[in-house]
Amino acid sequence: MKKLAPTTLKYLSLVAAAVAVLLPLSVVLLASFKSSSEYASTGPLTSPQNWLNFDNFATAFEQGGMVEGFINTTVILAISLAGTILIGTMTAYAIDRFNFRGKKLVMGLFLVASLIPSVTSQVATFQLISSMGLFNTRSALVLLFLGTDIIAIFIFLQFMASIPTSLDEAARLDGANYWTIYWKIILPLLKPAIATVIIIKGIAIYNEFYLPFLYLPSEGMISTSLFNFKGPFGAQWEVISAGTILVILPTLIAFIFLQRWIYRGLVAGAVK
Amino acid sequence: MTVSPTDSHQAQPEAATPASLAGPRAKASKPGPNRKKPGFSLTPYLFLALGVGLLLLLTYVPAVNMIWYSFTDWNGLGPVGDWVGFENYQEVFTNPRIFGVFGVSIYYFAASFVQMALALYFAVILSFNTRFSNFFRGVIFFPYLINGVAIGFVFLYLFQPDGTLDTVLSWFGVTEPPQWLGDASIANYSLATTSVWRYTGLNFILFLGAIQSIPAELYEAAKIDGAGPWHQFRYIIFPGIRRIIGLSFILAISGALSVFEIPFIMTGGANGTATFVIQTLQTAFTYRSVGLASAMAVILLIIVLLVTWVQRKVFPDEKVDLS
């Protein structure tokens, strides 16, 4: 009996944590299936009459501009990821495999830049983007996602150090130039690091709110489309709930299938 | 050109499981001092050009501009305004409307202690044998991945008058719950709690990772010596993760100062919930005082750099910086 108590407490606390996490999400799920009259007349914890009532999801998709949001996010995500990987691996290749004048300076620049809080520096970045004529374009977002990714470079650097340089040398002897070595040897060997970067960066871009809010006011990305529900659907919590569920669903699916990679990636990204 | 070794080496990463990242390949050869022959070569600069170019353009040009703007009275439109010296900085420290918002950070700073305590507790108990540990680990971690706007709406819904929270509390006999977000004396607690809900998962997974990297033999040796769970925690786990805990504490300071998304999405900074970052952005983009806002941003930057400097002093040989 004495032995049982700590175990019971342990499981009780775990269940309490699970409830604390899942309850706020579940009630939103319940609300998303309710009709508006049903929402008004039932409490938050009563289940919907019809679990197959997808009207709110349709409203969120069609009138809430979520289609546009998903398309914009997908396009910007794909271009930014491809660019980040190319730029990040090339930069890491130069820093890890070459000795050159100014190497310390370049490393220092990346290190210091990783400390600058990016939200506040938008005060000045905004002026720059608008002077380049990119305000309210998707290019502005791609550019910002590409230009500020220092964590990706650190992950690539760390991983590249474990790729033996003898591979480069062997290829050199066979007459390969540096570009070929980078493209045909280094890049393929970096696959695990690339997967890590795709996960960290992909989640970050999918969840990014302030950059699209500031730079792309006329079109929505996924976060801003949902944020804009505040106006037109202000009192229609069943529609807002449906939109919220639609945004969380892809994250949940990705999490279920990529769990191990996500854990590892986040630890790698956070503790460089 | 023939790149014969390429193909055989390319086959390697597919065979290597991600868990054994460095293992087999690192053994393939000793990293020699090969690097590069002396003499000037353009090659590294070509590989660097894009990355460094974007870094300068999007990080350093704005940073330098920001310092310049902070000494002017610019409104963000037309040519940069007149030089006003330290007037903006004076304003930040003397205007209670601006300086006062630093107080809001205290709620989040306090909350980050709760967050770390929870994260540490669950990381420790889940590192021991537990049923459904995968499920619990996933549930505790998942909120960290959720879109910030979605979290904002989930909690706006939860905190509504007669909403979920009030309903649950009524089961326990609380009949007159406060206005969780409408009452200025409570709103910051509600928002800080939301922040704990969102970020505990990150601390949790970092702590768990640190605990799991402690060699298993240590536990076995301790068990043989008759150490119970408490002693295992006190003498094995805690020393093993002291560093990451310490770092998390220090980083909680800059984290608390840079709080933005949750209050911005949920209350827009109303009811005394404006944080320093919200105030800075409103000053810049709503009131169009780019000069003043730049001064605020520079002050935040200096504080963050100071905190990092202290962190490096306290934990000198650890290359960790959570950004």
TrEMBL record, chain A:
Q: What is its main location?
A: membrane
Q: Which residues cross the membrane?
A: 12-33, 70-93, 105-129, 141-160, 181-206, 239-258
**Listed CDD domains:** TM_PBP2 (cd06261)
Keyword check for Nuclease: no
Keywords attached to this Swiss-Prot or TrEMBL record, sorted alphabetically, are:
Cell membrane, Membrane, Transmembrane, Transmembrane helix, Transport
Task: Look up and give the membrane topology term.
Answer: Multi-pass membrane protein
User: Locate the ABC transmembrane type-1 domain: which residues?
Assistant: 70-258
Matches recorded under InterPro entries: MetI-like, MetI-like_sf
Q: Where in the cell is it found?
A: Cell membrane
Instruction: Describe the family membership recorded for this protein in Swiss-Prot or TrEMBL.
Output: Belongs to the binding-protein-dependent transport system permease family.
* Protein name listed in UniProt: Sugar ABC transporter permease
Name the source organism.
Answer: Glutamicibacter nicotianae (Arthrobacter nicotianae)
UniProtKB/TrEMBL annotation, chain B:
Task: Outline the segment boundaries, as ranges, of region: Disordered.
Answer: 1-35
Stored Gene3D superfamilies: MetI-like (1.10.3720.10)
Q: How does it sit in the membrane?
A: Multi-pass membrane protein
SUPFAM superfamilies in the record: MetI-like
User: Which keywords annotate this record?
Assistant: Cell membrane, Membrane, Transmembrane, Transmembrane helix, Transport
Q: Please report the stretch or stretches of sequence annotated as the ABC transmembrane type-1 domain.
A: 101-311
Q: Where in the cell is it found?
A: Cell membrane
Q: Locations of Polar residues compositional bias? A: 1-11
Main location as per UniProt: membrane
Q: Which domain of life is it from?
A: Bacteria
Keyword Transmembrane listed? The answer is: yes
Give yes or no: UniProt keyword Transmembrane helix. yes
Annotated membrane-spanning segments are 45-69, 106-128, 140-159, 196-214, 244-265, 285-310
Concerning Pfam families, the annotation shows: BPD_transp_1 (PF00528)
Family, according to the entry, reads as follows: Belongs to the binding-protein-dependent transport system permease family.
Name assigned to this protein: ABC transporter permease
Whose protein is this, by species?
Glutamicibacter nicotianae
